[in-house]
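Dear colleagues,

As part of the handover before I leave the project, I'm documenting each prediction I ran so the next person doesn't have to rerun anything. This entry is a single chain, and its sequence is reproduced below.
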Amino acid sequence: MTAPLRWRQRRTNLLILGGGNLAGAIAAFGYFAFIDLRGRAETAGALGAASLYFIAGMTLLGIVGTVLAVRWTAPLDSREPNVDDPLVRHRALALPAALAIISMIGWILASLVWGIVVPALIGTLSWQRFFRTLLGTTLIGGSITVSFIFLAVERTWRRELPAFFPLGDLSAVRGVPRLSVRARLLAVFLLVGLVPLTLMAILTWSRASLMVGADRDVATALLGNMLAMIVFLLGMGTVAAAGLALFVSRSVAEPLRDVEAAMERVGGGDLATRAPVVSNDEIGAVAEGFNRMVAGLRERERIRETFGKYVSPEVRDEILAGRVSLGGQVREVTILFSDLRDFTPWVESHPPDEVVRDINAYFTLMEGAIRAHGGLVVQFIGDEIEAVFGAPVAEPRHADHAVAAALEMRRRLAAWNEARRAAGAVVLCHGIGVHTGEVLTAAIGSPERLSYALVGDPVNLASRIQGLTKEVGGDLLVSGDTVRRLKDPFALEALPAVRVKGRAAEVEVYRAT
């Protein structure tokens, strides 16, 4: 919140206080001086003195009210308001109600001054006059003025309120009056409907009672007074009704329109949007709830994007949609293992930052090839990659996808080595083994940490086949079980059956040419 904005708002508040109370005071003075019969009698011949006394009294009350308002809002005048200070937050949210209460206190004091102090000074003090003054002052001038001040200050202050509540957590502030939408509508109905009609009925009845038995001149004067009263109340009621209805409708419609606009932005994919929270009523609660919902969507999207770094987008979407079970399942899959050759000597002979950079670049290229063919990288182990095709989302052509991914890995490494050779870097080599079989797929681990894992002999055999690349030559070996499930033609050369560690039977393998 910048200094010019603070000064503009303070000036606006003072104008609303001064202008609203002045308009109400003029209406009350006009009522007592020209409409109220006893008020006219009391001021007859001394209208000028009464006017000066009225102006002086209202000026004094206005000065007192202004001082109270300035002192009450002092904690809000900091260039950078401390939004963590409970006092600042409380006063920022309670500002419209506080200024309305200050104005109401002024009107109560005015009724005491004109209903008790002045009559006592001139010797006309009576309970009847006090209650008549209290009724006329608070009902004619005070009620509508206080309502106008509250709604007008609230409307203008809503531009500045978000600066004190960057998180929109208005509901967390306790002890602030909460004016519900129902209370707003009911108050406006009473002020612009029931109160003027009741007042008009009472005053009309009193005039009619005075006209009974009165002579012609008195009756004519009473009739003229009644007409003036009707015009006065009708004009004041119309202005008050139009003004208060406009303020109340805007106080409800504008926040709802802001929420509606925020919903449209969220519908368009903008999850960074927020609905302004500018009140602590039901509409403010709706805006807060909407913002919490959007925050939940942002968190879900963050989890979704983070999860997408571990699995392919297709697998991620299937799991988040609940169409894939992470519980134990036995299914046929194709497993791929790859391993960098001479990794340990390379690590020992190069700076750590270079090793990390190159191994990350290698993993990025290889994982891209695996993802491109629908595979899932289960884990990175040192310089080794374990990947699976056909899980957790079932895929009938998992063997074809695995061999295609292995060939793509070979091409990507060759292209990367050309660039490394041109830059004078060491050329890297790897071996890849592919095997198909039934394994147990499950989320395995502790309650605090889980990982998607493959359990079964085919996993071990795929790793052994990858190790055979060092013995039989070639960088890509495919098991006979995988070849028999291939539906697409691949350039594969059959090799003599070989024996691997841990298995009594020989293993049929093919070398990619």
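The chain has two domains: 1-177, 323-512. Confidence is low (pLDDT under 50) at residues 1-5.

All the best with the project,
I.
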